[in-house]
Amino acid sequence: MAVQDAMDVLYGKWNIAILSAIGFYNKRSVYDISNDVGGISNKMLSKELKELEINMLITRTVLNTKPVTVQYQLTEHGNTLRTIIDNLTDWGKEHRVKIIGK
Amino acid sequence: MAVQDAMDVLYGKWNIAILSAIGFYNKRSVYDISNDVGGISNKMLSKELKELEINMLITRTVLNTKPVTVQYQLTEHGNTLRTIIDNLTDWGKEHRVKIIGK
DNA sequence: CAGTATCCGAGTAGATACTG
DNA sequence: CAGTATCTACTCGGATACTG
């Protein structure tokens, strides 16, 4: 099922939060992303960023600063995913009202 | 994040497949769902159906047959989720073409 | 700052056997 | 047929310490 290809990308405790953190401002350092997401470990952030890059949702740029800075930003493909995330967010809100009760 | 409320429902190896199996025909027995999904164990199917019911996405009806038959069908709320799944499926197809290459 | 390696606990899911 | 119980294996994610 094709839907599983999408779920592979979306799934994970941090994936969507990271995409949102990058997407809102565009061009973020690992440090900034880490702060925005909050509570994520170095290992997880690093791992997820790598996967997102492989999936062509974000690009990675190394800057010649000292110490090194690495910038991430959404690709065009990554931006198309944001629409989906928005839809999911809307549905999630409705669902929460219905099930959890506000 | 509200999107996580949606992901809680969508996540899992079988969740979406089960919803699709029920949704296409509406009113399915456990036996039918199991056949449609394919490869799912009794334990998993049972567990997922229970969760979906708690989340008010499906309803459970016990029929007075012998042996017992149980019918599941999507609720209205469950149907709103199908739109999301369709979107995810479309995105998944694009993604597959882009990344995996058809 | 960015990234990697290791160790460990908790949760997820499979196989199998069983009840009504 | 529908559902439960048990036992086991594997993956996920957190904590920590380390390199350039």
Describe the secondary-structure layout.
Two copies of one chain form a homodimer.
Chain A: H1 2-10, H2 15-25, E1 28-29, H3 30-37, H4 42-54, E2 58-63, E3 69-74, H5 76-100
Antiparallel strand pairs in A: 1-3, 2-3
Helix pairs in contact in A: 2-3, 2-5
Chain A binds a DNA duplex (20 and 20 nucleotides) through α4.
Protein architecture, described:
The structure is a homodimer of 102-residue chains. By secondary structure, chain A is an alpha+beta fold. Chain A contains five helices and three strands; from the N terminus they run ααβααββα. Chain A has helices at 2-10, 15-25, 30-37, 42-54, 76-100, and strands spanning 28-29, 58-63, 69-74. In chain A, strand 2 and strand 3 (69-74) form a beta hairpin. Chain A starts with a helix and ends with a helix. The mean pLDDT of chain A is 93. The A-B interface holds A 1-7, 9-11, 16-17, 20, 54-56, 77, 80-81, 84-85, 87-96, 98-100 and B 1-7, 9-11, 16-17, 20, 54-56, 77, 80-81, 84-85, 87-96, 98-100. The structure holds a DNA duplex (20 and 20 nucleotides).
Main attributes of the structure:
homodimer; 102 residues; alpha+beta; 65% helix
